[in-house]
Amino acid sequence: MGFTIWFGNTSSLSNDGFQFAKSTLVQERNIEPSDRATDFGKGSRPSNITLTYPQLSENEKTRLIILEPGEPTDALRCDFKHVCSLKDHEYEALSYVWGEESSDHTIQCSGMKIQITANLDDALRQLRYTDRTRLLWVDAISINQKDLVERSHQVRIMREIYANAAQVVIWLGRVAEGDARAFSSLQALKSVLIGQNDLWFLVRLGWYRDKNGRVFSGGAHRSMVTDIEYEHLVTLLRREWFRRTWVIQEVASSRSATVYCGNQTISWELLADVYMILGDRFLPVSQMGGEDAHHSLENITAIERARRSHSGPLSMSLFHILLATRFSSCKDQRDKIFAVIGLAKNWEKRRALMPDYDANEGKVLEAFKEFAVADINHHKDLRVLSCASGPNASSSLPSWVPDWRAVENVHPLTRYSERTRFCASGGMKPEAWHSDNNTILHVKGLQVDSIAILGSQPEFTKAVAVFEIDTAKISALQKSYSWLRECENLSRQDRGILTPKRQKELWRTMTCGLTGEAFPAPRRYANYFNRYMGFMSSASERFEDYLTESRTTVFGIRGLDEVMPNFQTHAVVEASLDLWSSKRLFSVTRYGRLACVPRGARVGDSICVLFGGEVPYVLRPAGGGFYTVIGECYVDDIMHGESLSDDTTPKEFLLR
């Protein structure tokens, strides 16, 4: 029969020169008879002995672990080391994905047998030295996960833990086929990509491929990046670690970081630099890698923005951090807030969202309301409405309050306000106040139009990004062209032809007047857009030819020379369409304006300019003078205060 060892009344126990605080019975672990006792006595243990996590005393900051040396097949062993000051210890902090929690992997830690995930087992075995100990901080072991009070407290100091580590060790997982090639490719690309910014460069590299192989495979830069396999770079980017919410704070807070994939290593700075350059300037990574790769690029960018912000003046607000991390994933949706709150040092009201794992959903939603109110009051604008929950909001959440666990509008126009320079309300400050326990937002503004016609849900695929053609891609491209033609036809209405003015309104509306990098689109975009529409019209007649012939054959060698340089401008247009139109609906208003509106919009919804709003908003009358916020919109010719006049009479809107 097993028994319990209880140290509840013991102030401390000496163990190899460091302190153990008094323990609390919060976590039970079964220890098999064969397990050796290394901390509390000698010899083998009886079965079913239950030990407890050593409780942190009031002056102790956290637990580090001393990972014992061993050979690859040896059992994992470590000791706890309680520390009062992180700055006094040279330790490394592990950043990894937990993985599946059902696992038979364990580690012996100060007499306890702690169950760990298979991924953590792999990481510790790879990181373990054979001849000396290694001092680490590992959340699954260093934090008593069953103690919600301790867990909440440790999460609050997570940034401090990672910021004081000698380095952050990023564990992507076991090495897989192609990972070594990906790491060597990243090394080679760093010097090559600097200063290059066009798709034609990729053609010369030999990365632009048709169905039958690489075009211009003997490109001018091949000797500099011999045998780079682009697919391995994309595959590496699909690793789950890149999309995890917690890693943003872990790496952004670090002094330095090293990426491990099995026995392959590379500096985080190099990896991030190359992927960001590829994602910003070149077509394939962002457009061929699929949704997972795209979201990974977003997370890498978010990490680096926050990291550079912390190395200089702190400039990222919690609002922008939450937007930057909207694609990240976590099992506990409260961590969408808790995992990044430590980065937003410039938001003085953030205590309303401090980590508290005892908090139920009601408390979390109440915190969302408090944040929305504080952001409006502090920044004197209505930018949070661009991320509003809308008609799909939780029944406990007003439509004007963002639910940061799942933001519907993934690319709000207000995210890039320093670039877009929209000013629909003419720079007026918000006249806003709250009532009914922050449930109702009172705002003043103007109802300037309403939705008369809605286009269909966009089905958009970037034609320039399709390097390999199959039947499914042909179908997707045909749907893309049909959607483009539909928008063009809606803008004609009964006018018959597209006047130059209407053509200008069309391309500006379909791109929200912005480039793929969220800068105001220059005038030459009109020419780019017209050439792109011509290309899609011509290509739509020849899509089927791609199934049996290469691009070289379809266009001809001379034609290919003419088409390929144009792909850069086509890619520019597609990047803008994909970012701003593909998740919205094309619309024509009651007064004939062209608009890009939220997917949840309906015919009859009001288009309003609210004082303090950078952009117009779609509101739906809800009876009794109340309105539901549907979301932000782009309406051509009212984005810069054109709807305001001296005799304007404002209206009060009650949003709930």
Automatic annotation (TrEMBL):
Domain Heterokaryon incompatibility: 91-250
Superkingdom of origin organism: Eukaryota
Any Pfam family matching the protein: HET
Protein name in UniProt: Heterokaryon incompatibility domain-containing protein
Source organism of the structure: Cadophora malorum
